[in-house]
Please model this.
Amino acid sequence: MGLAIALALCSTAAAGVDHWRQADLEMTRFEFLPKLAFSSGDKTGRKHTFEKNMTMREKNLMASASKFPAAVAIAGTAAAGHLSFETKVHEVFPWWTSDETDIRSAVTLHHLLTLTSGLVSDDFADAGVACLGFTLRASKTAPEDCAKEIYARSDLWSSPPGVTWSYHSLHLQVAGAMAAKAANMTLPQLLRTFLLDKLGMSDSGWLLMENGNPHLAAAMEATGDDYDKMLQAVLTYDPFPKELIDQMEADAYYTYPGLAPAQNVKDLSLEFYGHYSMCLYYECVNQVNFTDECEAKAVHADPGAFGYWPLINRPKEYYMQIVVERHVTLPQWALDRFNISQADVAALAGQCVSPIRYNIQPAVEAALAVPVDPPLHYRLQYPLNEICRIASQNPSEKHSAATSDALDEGGAERYAERRLAELRALYATPLSQLLW
Model:
């Protein structure tokens, strides 16, 4: 009997290795990403790592994949009792109106973290608010002053909270300032205390963080190894309380019946990815409507515009991440052919990465010995598939982050400013024809 059990275990282990090899082969063949890394694991820890022309130790500019780490840190202040998700902003900032005739009076931390505060913009990032510009000067603004600047933009407060979902950076910046004030911390102290130091994410952080006002929603640099630590911590509810994570993963569209995306191209097109919770998509990719099946699958993801794609499958109790920072350029003839500009293609990486996210899933699930979903046979449609194919033949290198640690203070600042310039280029994208 002992021999039979041993042989069965060996057979299972061998099958797992074969499935990981299949996932690795899919990623090796995926031409759009000449460089990528990958990790996946379950509640017992990381089970597999794959590296293709880069390592899990390299820093990546996260773009929108910065949102969930920032939200986890902010939620940490709630777990510590400094405030709750239902705390209203005016209960923290005395200058914030409590007048019930003003829609801003009802805004809570929960509204801010689910991007349903009533701040609406067709811009992906700063919406013209100077303290959120990707600049050295913006990084030195006091976070509370930045919150005041956002508060004063009456043109952006166009909806009562809990009614309209709009994807941009302003909500999260107010949430960070609010949480820091409640905890009697600076914003950098908050990020270190409740995320970076707490999880040992020693090689990650936000650009110009120590200046005081990092751009929370887009300016994180992280290594695959560090982000893996966060995914494991969230998956296992350690050290974060299960009750806290359950609230963060709850579908905001169910919390606020009648919630709808803002009526602009950007927010309507982002329905492509599904519903939203606290700085996480509740995945239902490429479906006409959000379905009961998507709700039951409970896959939570925070993909970024440079292609980074981390996710947690809650019912099957595993995580995986595609670790990448892919900058996209197209030759002039391609821009002319599709009548688009280089700015239009800056945010293509996320869309072009989406097929590999789904194509490796069956092998990953088989290797982890969890129930395997039927292959989705995910394909991009024309012209996006053709644009991604052309982009695959024109790889563009990111600025090397590997040397930034060795720079003196002035050099490190110049490095950060170059990286911020990449974000400015990315978020200048008009996105009139793109989904990301």
Q: What stands out?
A: The domain at 18-43+54-427 is CATH 3.40.710.10 (Beta-lactamase). The first strand starts at residue 36 and ends at 42.
